[in-house]
Automatic annotation (TrEMBL):
Recorded GO MF terms: DNA binding; DNA-binding transcription factor activity
UniProt domain HTH gntR-type: residue ranges: 9-77
CDD domains hit by this protein: WHTH_GntR
Name used for this protein in its record: GntR family transcriptional regulator
Keywords: DNA-binding, Transcription, Transcription regulation
Gene3D superfamilies the UniProt entry points to: GntR ligand-binding domain-like (1.20.120.530), Winged helix-like DNA-binding domain superfamily/Winged helix DNA-binding domain (1.10.10.10)
InterPro entries in UniProt: GntR_C, TF_FadR/GntR_C, Tscrpt_reg_HTH_GntR, WH-like_DNA-bd_sf, WH_DNA-bd_sf
Length: 238
């Protein structure tokens, strides 16, 4: 089922999304030039002004480089701003079955999430620890609901609560940027038989460790969570 573009999104935002996805998917290969402005505007059924705004946004995400009188160059993947929210989401959705990309995302999670859990155990306020426990309770309830989107939503809310409780602006900023990529990863892994229920107890152990301010246990449990995900991912990508 095709989901309509949200009414609040501008024409340039929608165009940026469509062209950005096309670039990430390889329809417009890296190191090549995009079609001329008139052709591209006609292909995506948008005005030239809307296209120009979309091009500015894509250039800011480092997907393209606009060179006057020389055309618009699609930049190599190594230069894409993968921490941009849109780019991270497009890449995660398009490369969800790509072992290389998914392993990179997993490696990034190994750097981010244990550090966030450790910091949360050290710095969480009582209210923030309670928010993490409340998020876990929602995860428990979600097990009773046979709806993948619900499972993933509450899982994401749990991790967002941990990131907030870290009181580290760098962790929070990076996490906010890649949360959509994590969501796509969670969707893929949680869709595997029993994977969600299997990992639920680890979330409880993590919530309890943060609540009692046991930073070592929080870090180790976050690492265990990721390794459980890694096992499921390896089976999924065979």
């Amino acid at each position: 089922m095709k989901i309509a573009d949200p009414a609040w999104r501008s024409g340039a935002s929608v165009a940026c999304d469509k062209i950005g996805r096309a670039i990430v998917a390889g329809r417009f290969p890296e190191h090549t030039r995009l079609p001329k402005e008139a052709e591209l505007a006609a292909e995506f059924a948008i005005s030239r002004n809307t296209l120009r705004e979309a091009m500015k946004a894509l250039a800011a995400k480092s997907l393209i480089e606009i060179a006057p009188r020389r055309g618009t160059l699609v930049l190599p993947r190594s230069r894409w701003n993968i921490l941009d929210r849109d780019v991270a989401e497009w890449a995660a959705q398009i490369f969800i079955n790509d072992p290389g990309f998914m392993n990179e995302l997993l490696a990034f999670r190994r750097l981010l999430e244990p550090a966030a859990a450790e910091a949360a155990a050290l710095h969480a306020t009582p209210d923030e620890a309670a928010d993490i426990q409340a998020a876990y309770q929602e995860m428990e309830r979600a097990v009773e609901i046979d709806e993948l989107e619900v499972w993933v939503h509450v899982d994401i809310e749990f991790h967002k609560a941990v990131f907030r409780a870290s009181h580290n602006r760098f962790i929070q900023s990076v996490a906010d940027s890649v949360i959509h990529a994590l969501r796509t990863s969670f969707l893929a892994v949680s869709n595997q038989p029993s994977s969600y229920a299997q990992n639920l107890q680890n979330h409880k152990i993590l919530a309890d460790a943060i609540e009692r301010k046991d930073s070592k246990a929080a870090k180790l449990t976050a690492e265990k969570l990721i390794e459980t995900t890694a096992d499921v991912q390896r089976k999924m990508l065979r």
